Amino acid sequence: MTNTSAKISEQAAARAFSKQAPVFDQLYSTDTIIQYKRNRVREHIEKWISPQSKMLELNAGTGEDAIYFAQKGHHIHATDISGEMQKMLIKKVDQAQLEKMITYEICSFTELENLRQPGPYDYIFSNFAGLNCTSELEKVLDSFSFLLKPGGLVTLVVMPKFCLWEFLLLFKGKFKTAFRRFAGRKGAKAFIESEYFRCWYYNPSFIKKYLKSLFDTLSIEGLCTLVPPSYMENFADKHSKLYDNLKKREDKWKSNWPWRNVGDYYIITLKKKD
Question: How far apart are CA 138 and CA 132, in angstroms?
């Protein structure tokens, strides 16, 4: 994909999430599996983060994670390409009286060299597959070297090229969903709030290999490998005992092969070499 095409797709994603911003929290804040995913990511980060870290968040959305980590004593610079998402974040920051802990900026994660607050940071994180909205992930990864302090950490939550739950939908006749991650370089078509844009999928091996000269990989965990994806609505409520069992098994096996590679997402954490 050309740089122009990549930018057009990124702008379409920004329009889609801007339209969704006013109802985003209402749609997702009470979903059991989404809360499971969010808690898993936070627990993962808290295993590695040092007290009172200076953090950079990419695709911060409405600020749910920024608020959480600020209340834990960390300083966050929250970035997003969507202006409407930033408006929701700013409102939350004001309500929580966290103006001294959270700053914010509209900035694409493919243009981080233009950040008004270039760091260096102790920690960079990106949650819930925002990075899958670009065909130019290399640009994002390249920026980590100058944004992070030596020994700094980065945690990314990304969708891989294969999801076991999605592939099993083949047996329900949902071929489009079952095979969408095999779209390759052209990306898979996504649709939110009447806006079409494209998504690309990246295995953890791609990120690990691309950054290996400057970063050590500390951890890779599968997320929603045995627990189903959150778009399987009401699964946790309809099948509560099965859900609890799947959650226990996933938490036990999340770092093991093949489970770390076949989820709806994976969580990868890397450390910049000194």
Answer: 12
**Sign of the torsion angle spanned by Cα atoms 265, 136, 106, 195:** negative
- Mapping DSSP to helix (H, G, I), strand (E, B) and coil, where does residue 117 land? coil
CA dist., res. 267 & res. 158, Å (int): 7
Query: Comparing C-alpha atoms, which of 156, 154, 177, 157 is closest to residue 167?
Result: 177
Whether the pLDDT of residue 44 is over 80: the answer is: yes
Does the predicted model carry a pTM greater than 0.90? yes
Among all chains, which residue has been given the structure tokens 């990549």?
6
Q: What is the mean pLDDT of the chain?
A: 94
On whether the CB atoms of residues 167 and 178 are closer than 8 A, the answer is yes
CA distance 263 to 203: 11
As to burial, measured by CB atoms within 10 angstroms (0-12 exposed, 13-18 middle, 19+ buried), residue 100 is: exposed
